[in-house]
């Protein structure tokens, strides 16, 4: 499935995807690491540290919603941008029921991430008061 349209390189600290932005790019990490973060009031919450052969950016491809988190290079990073037409073709090969399941998963993941952020912010505020 690794149909890479183009390869991109990023230096340490470079933002690859900005939370709230729009884009349908789905990325494969060829080398290096990528930190996934989400804004929390004035702070930033680390969500994941992705490595070689991990994918990211898939939710916005599936549901066409704004990016739910930011992705930043940790050290030198080489990424493959997965061919959008290929992904569309593969998704269209699946049954309508399976596509609905994929879209439902993306929707639930967004809701769960939002709830996690809210609970983390509340926990952060409670800790400040102690």
How does the SSE layout of this entry go?
Blueprint: E1 4-10, E2 15-17, E3 27-40, E4 43-50, E5 55-56, H1 58-63, E6 70-82, H2 84-93, H3 96-129
Antiparallel strand pairs: 1-6, 2-6, 3-4, 3-5, 3-6
Label this structure with key terms:
alpha+beta; 38% helix; flat; six-stranded antiparallel β-sheet; 3 helices; 130 residues; single chain; Jelly Rolls
In short:
The protein has 130 residues and is α+β, with helices and mostly antiparallel strands. It is built from three helices and six strands.
Strand content: 35-45%
The geometry reads as flat
Question: Class in CATH?
Answer: Mainly Beta
Tally of individual domains: 1
Largest sheet: 6 strands, antiparallel
Sketch the topology as an H/E string, one letter per element: EEEEEHEHH
CATH architecture: Sandwich
CATH topology description: Jelly Rolls
Structural class: alpha+beta
- Name the average pLDDT: 89
Helix content: 25-40%
What is the CATH H-level superfamily?
Answer: Jelly Rolls
Number of DSSP helical runs: 3
The whole-angstrom Rg is: 16 Å
Q: Tell me the total number of β-strands.
A: 6
Q: Which blocks of ≥5 consecutive residues have pLDDT under 50?
A: none
Q: What distance separates the N and C termini?
A: 51 Å
How would you explain this protein's 3D organization?
The chain is an alpha+beta fold. The chain has one domain: Jelly Rolls. 38% of the residues lie in helices and 36% in strands. It has 3 helices and 6 strands; from the N terminus they run βββββαβαα. Strands 1, 2, 3, 4, 5 and 6 form a 6-stranded antiparallel sheet that branches. It is flat. The mean pLDDT is 89.
């Amino acid at each position: 499935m690794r149909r890479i349209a183009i390869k991109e390189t990023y230096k340490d600290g470079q933002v690859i995807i900005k939370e709230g932005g729009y884009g349908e790019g789905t990325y494969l990490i060829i080398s290096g690491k990528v930190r996934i973060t989400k804004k929390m009031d004035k702070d930033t919450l680390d969500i994941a540290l992705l490595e070689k052969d991990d994918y990211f950016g898939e939710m916005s491809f599936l549901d066409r919603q704004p990016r739910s988190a930011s992705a930043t290079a940790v050290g030198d990073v080489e990424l493959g941008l997965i061919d959008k037409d290929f992904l569309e073709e593969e998704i269209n090969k699946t049954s309508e029921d399976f596509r609905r399941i994929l879209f439902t998963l993306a929707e639930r993941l967004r809701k769960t991430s939002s709830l996690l952020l809210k609970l983390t912010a509340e926990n952060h505020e409670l800790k400040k008061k102690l």
